[in-house]
Amino acid sequence: MAPISKIAIWNMALGWVGTRTVASETEHTQEAIQCSLYWDQARRQALRDYPWNFAQCRVVPAAVPLPEGGDDYAHACALPDDCLHVRAVRVPGTGNLAHRRSARHRVVLDRQGGRRVLLTDAAPVVLEYTADLDNPDLFDDLFVGVMARKLAAMIAVPLLKNNSARLNELEQLYRAALPAAREADAAEEYRGVAPDAWLCAR
Questions:
Q1: How do strand 56-59 and strand 83-90 relate by DSSP bridges?
Q2: Can you give the pLDDT at residue 99?
Q3: Residue 192 falls in which region: left (phi positive, over 0), alpha (psi -120 to 50) or beta
Q4: Inter-helix orientation angle 141-160/30-48, to 10°
Q5: Contact indicator for 56, 186 with CB cutoff of 8 Å
Q6: Summary mean pLDDT of the chain
């Protein structure tokens, strides 16, 4: 897949909105200003809306002290700096990771440490999460199309002012793009056959 630039995604979004395109991120035009303003928010929302394969990471998080008020869980772990959304917390063991037991967990703010931590009932655990990727070179083609629609839906508010019908149409275009992208993205993954619960019990 050829790398794609941030400007290319901006211009895809502006094409959906129906306004003029931009040539650089530093242009003093409303189009460039609004794309720059909403870029990170649109990117993070699009990443969170589905566990895109290209943005998934697995890590064994480091243990940290339980925060105040977190004693309804047995353990606490530090979340990676780039953790945008926790997808699963698995208990290490044999067999396919996707079929391992999930640990009860919750993400909370440790006010004393000034950071988010993961509370769990097991340790160690394997954390599966969506990374906060901001490098378009790493984006999947399918995500690029979805991302452009999401950005279009957000920048249309300030660019089109009171055109509520167009705003709704752009948000619907974003939602409509998700199922096809999800289906194609899921085709890149094979989870194997889940173990028979009755056999495991024996």
A1: unpaired
A2: 57
A3: left
A4: 130
A5: no
A6: 84
Distance CA 68, CA 47 (A): 31
Q: What ranges make up the beta strands (E) of 91-196?
A: 105-110, 115-120, 126-131
Q: Give the chain's length.
A: 202
Pick from 44, 1, 14, 54: nearest CA to 181: 54
> Which pTM was predicted?
0.80
Query: Region 130-159: what's the mean pLDDT?
Result: 92
pLDDT reading at 104 higher than 80 = yes
Among residues 180, 78, 167, the alpha carbon closest in space to that of 125 is found at 78
Using the 8-state DSSP alphabet, how is residue 125 labeled? Answer: -
Amino acid sitting at position 44: R
**Six-digit token string for 29:** 């035009």
Choose the weakest-confidence range: 13-27, 79-93, 138-152, 173-187. Answer: 173-187
